[in-house]
Write a structure and sequence with these properties.
Layout (H helix, E strand, L loop, with lengths): L2 E3 L5 E3 L3 H11 L5 E5 L4 E5 L2 E8 L5 E6 L2 H10 L3 E3 L6 E6 L5 H15 L2 H12 L5
Antiparallel strand pairs: 1-2, 3-4, 4-5, 5-6, 6-8, 7-8
Protein name: YjbR protein
InterPro entries: YjbR/MT2646/Rv2570-like (IPR058532)
Pfam family, one: YjbR
């Protein structure tokens, strides 16, 4: 596993490219959503709002951080690992990811996060597409 060292001397593993591509496949299909390098890992944004951030942690585990509605934040917190509530923001949740991760679930979480962060008109377009059985 490749690691990256940051200015603070902490080594973090690089996210497997396959996982980045899985996320990008979903998010790049959403209106105005784009990937960019983050301070560690990769993040996707719509406008200036972060939709998702995938990265390797100091503990050498991988995480994806997303946005969620308030009731979902509480549910994530209650479910426990692999889910977690982030220590910042009121709508930030995450998922520890590994080789057993359910990527269909991640796809749903990514789209839901986009809908929280995107302008209403764009979110409504995506929700209509999903409601009619389409994908993003």
């Amino acid at each position: 596993m490749d690691t990256v060292h940051y200015g603070d001397g902490v080594a973090r593993p690089e996210v497997p490219e396959e996982w980045v591509q899985r996320c990008d496949h979903v998010l790049a299909a959403l209106p105005r959503c784009r990937a960019e390098a983050a301070w560690t890992g990769v993040r996707w944004r719509v406008g200036n709002a972060t939709v998702a951030h995938i990265f390797g942690g100091e503990d050498q585990r991988f995480r994806i951080v997303l946005r969620a509605e308030p009731d979902e934040v509480l549910a994530f917190e209650a479910m426990g690992e692999p889910y977690f509530r982030a220590g910042w923001g009121t709508d930030v949740v995450g998922l520890v990811i590994d080789d057993t991760t359910d990527w269909d679930e991640v796809e749903e979480l990514l789209v839901a996060s986009y809908c929280v962060q995107a302008p209403r008109r764009l979110a409504e377009e995506v929700l209509q597409s999903w409601a009619s059985g389409g994908r993003a």
